Amino acid sequence: MGGATWTSGIGSGTPFFAGTYDGGAFTISGLTITESSTDNLGLFGTVTSAGSIRNLGFFASVSGNSTVGGLVGANEGLVENSFVAGSGLVSSSSIYAGGLVG
Fold first, then answer.
1. Which among 62, 67, 76 is positioned nearest to 17, based on CA atoms?
2. Which residue, among 28, 82, 11, has the nearest Cα to 101 in the 3D structure?
3. Based on the number of CB atoms within 10 Å of its own CB, is 47 exposed (0-12), middle (13-18) or buried (19 or more)?
4. pTM given for the model
5. Residues facing 54 on adjacent strands
6. Average pLDDT for residues 4-18, to the nearest whole number?
7. pLDDT digits (tens, 9 = 90+) for 65-95
8. How many angstroms separate the CA atoms of 32 and 12, rounded?
9. Selection from 31, 47, 8 nearest residue 86 by Cα
10. Among candidates 86, 79, 91, which has minimal Cα distance to 59?
């Protein structure tokens, strides 16, 4: 099964993600997010203090410039009961990379 490639995540740039996302214990798989010049990169690029992500699994590969995370690039909100897994998972060409949150 083939995957999809994105060049930015949800809430990358403005407006940032300030909502609530409940994944319902489902997973997303086969997705690659890559943009060598982008900061705050992940499935959700930037989550504000008003944002929350819950109950989501993510099997993917994410690479960007700085503040790169599998699920969330830059986070001020809530991430709970979620995970990221895969090989070649998260990479940053600059600084700040994390498996779940950059």
1. 76
2. 82
3. buried
4. 0.87
5. 22, 80
6. 74
7. 999 998 999 999 999 999 998 766 888 899 8
8. 15
9. 31
10. 86
Residues sharing a CB contact under 8 Å with residue 20, sequence separation 6 or more, in sequence order? 51, 52, 53, 54
25-62 confidence digits (pLDDT tens): 999 988 888 888 888 998 999 999 999 999 999 988 88
Q: How far apart are the first and last CA of the chain?
A: 28
DSSP β-bridge partners for residue 70: none
How far is it, in rounded angstroms, from Cα 50 to Cα 33? 24
Number of residues that make up the chain? 102
